[in-house]
Amino acid sequence: MDQTFASSGTGPGLDTRAVAALAEEVLDWRFKALPPAAAGLTVRQYLDTGPGLADLGTPLLTLDAGALDHNLRTMARWCADAGVALAPHGKTTMAPALWQAQLAAGSHGITLANLPQLRVARAFGVRRVLLANSLLDPAGLRWLAGELAADPDFAFACWVDSVESVRLMDEALHAAGAGRPVEVLVELGGPGGRTGARGVDAAVEIAAAVGNAPTLRLAGIGGYEGALAHDASEGGLTAVRGYLRSLAELHGRLAGRYADGAAPVVTAGGSAYFDLVAEELAALPEAFVVLRSGAYIAHDDGFYRGISPLARGAGHGGGALRAALHGWARVVSRPEPQLALLDAGKRDLPFDEGLPEPQSVRGGAQLTGTAARITALNDQHAFLRDAGDLAPVGAVLRLGISHPCTAFDKWTLIPVLDDASAAEPKVTGLVRTFF
User: Fold this and answer.
1) How many CB atoms lie within 10 A of CB 352?
2) CA distance 126 to 129
3) I need a labelling partner for 31 at 20 to 30 A (CA). Which of 232, 253, 266, 384 fits?
């Protein structure tokens, strides 16, 4: 029997052999995180040499093994306590090894944003995928129809947010000779937000159009509350709650219209307001509520540190998330007494949700709590001010970063450290990304 996204089926799946095979990839100049000494070795062979952080050059981005494990367990426990499922957004990392860890921790599936990401997931055997977007590309829909036909265990759902998008999908799938209906969720948006039907009435019309499209199956509803607020102020939280209540209203209006089979999916929830999603939606009748939080696995020392529900007291006793990502950069110039230039810039570190923060000098002083700060990034340089004598030329600084979603995409291979705070951190793994 063909699987649905909401059904338990045969599990979310992932080809663990394909992930394990990444250890046999030969290292060379393509991987800027690694030193020339790694060239010609496989990932496995290089790790067998016992490298440490001191063996790696700069600029650099690393992951902390302990923080990753803590975040995986913390979020899994939180979702279980809240009575919601989790299909983490894989676009955050685009790292099959980390997807494997998330699925092993109990995630229901993987969320993705576009067709290229979906093809990566299928290359690594992910069997349950939610595409948090509309898929209208005829060539992509033809490929999808083939995947669904070839693999009855492949459970897939995507969004529609207009009658026109329903028509285009139906025409393309009909032309492709699709034998299996594609599950779709009606996306509800909000004024000033991103995609999504503007209003419950419009969303109900879209659901009716889906019901009349033989190549589609109405499997639920969804949306993204994070497009409607950007802070944890009273006004921001009120806006999010209002949107989620509209989503709940839509679910009620569509009772009796959902396709037969598994419970209808109701999905929302990035990494900023998943507590409100659970509060407003978890008790909906006959609904399979799915969060799509993705940034939690790496967390950060910036935007999500300030806005995460687990930093706002919604931790159910499980504690806050921990920053797993760190940048490392070397002081290469001190042209002025209170100005140092580091060898990491926009090509290496995220900057769209806040600049990196200097935390410490490797083997030296702590910078957190001092006047030291990064005031700007160029393509390949960071401007560090007011560090004084704490950051001489040649010193390597550990940097906290903000917004993991724009950190992973800058690195094809990311070293995993046993403990980024240790005096001599050891490299215990290398995470491969596919952007």
Assistant:
1) 11
2) 7
3) 384
Which region among 9-23, 135-149, 163-177 has the lowest average model confidence (pLDDT)?
Answer: 9-23
Mean pLDDT value across residues 43-47: 98
| Residues ≥6 apart with Cβ < 8 Å to 7 | 155, 261, 262
Q: Give the dihedral of Cα atoms 342, 348, 354, 358; nearest 10 deg.
A: -40
3-state SS, residue 159: strand
Distances from the Cα of 9 to the Cαs of 17, 121, 152, 258, 341, in angstroms?
Answer: 21, 18, 10, 19, 54
Whole-model pTM: value is 0.96
- Angstrom distance (rounded) from CA 321 to CA 118: 28
- pLDDT per position as a tens digit, 368-427: 999 999 999 999 999 999 999 999 999 999 999 999 999 999 999 999 999 999 999 999
What Cα–Cα distance (Å) separates residue 429 from each residue in 47, 52, 426, 434? Answer: 7, 11, 9, 17
Identify the three-state secondary structure at position 361: strand
Q: Quick check: 3 pLDDT over 90?
A: no
Q: Is the dihedral of CA 313, 316, 318, 324 positive or negative?
A: negative
d(CA 351, CA 155): 36
* Residue 316 pLDDT: 61
The half-sphere exposure of 383 on its side-chain side, counting CA atoms within 13 A, is 8
Which among 46, 116, 2, 141 is positioned nearest to 416, based on CA atoms?
Answer: 46
> In this structure, what token pair is assigned to residue 25?
């990839």
The span from the CA of 296 to the CA of 86, in Å, is: 11
Instruction: Output the six-digit token pair for 157.
Output: 């759902």
Strands of 350-425 (E only): list them.
357-361, 373-377, 382-385, 396-400, 413-417
- What angle is formed at CA 377 by the lines to CA 373 and CA 380, rounded to 5 degrees? 125
Q: Tokens 């140092």 correspond to what residue?
A: 340
Pairing of strands 339-342, 396-400: unpaired
User: What does the pLDDT average to over 49-72?
Assistant: 98
* Contact status, residue 293 vs residue 75, Cβ threshold 8 Å: yes
Name the pLDDT band for 7 (thresholds 50, 70, 90). confident
d(CA 385, CA 341): 9
